[in-house]
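Course exercise 7: structure representation. Students receive a sequence record and must write out the corresponding structure in token form. The form below is the worked example handed out in class, using Large ribosomal subunit protein eL20 (57 residues). Read each field label carefully; the graders check that inputs and outputs are placed in the correct fields and that the protein name is recorded exactly as given.

STUDENT ID: A-19
EXERCISE PROTEIN: Large ribosomal subunit protein eL20
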Amino acid sequence: MSQYTVTGRFQNRDGLREFSKTVDAPNGDVAVERTYAEFGSKHGLKRTQLEIEGVDR
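STUDENT ANSWER:
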């Protein structure tokens, strides 16, 4: 599997906060889905509260 860096912003109490997350995934689409799942489980965020800006290999 390759490593992908997913960048974007999410909504928190103070406004928008930027993030950069490195994920092991077979392709970029799976990397984005894993990012949504992780932020949902760890931070309690819904998909609409995340703004994915880019996926780099």
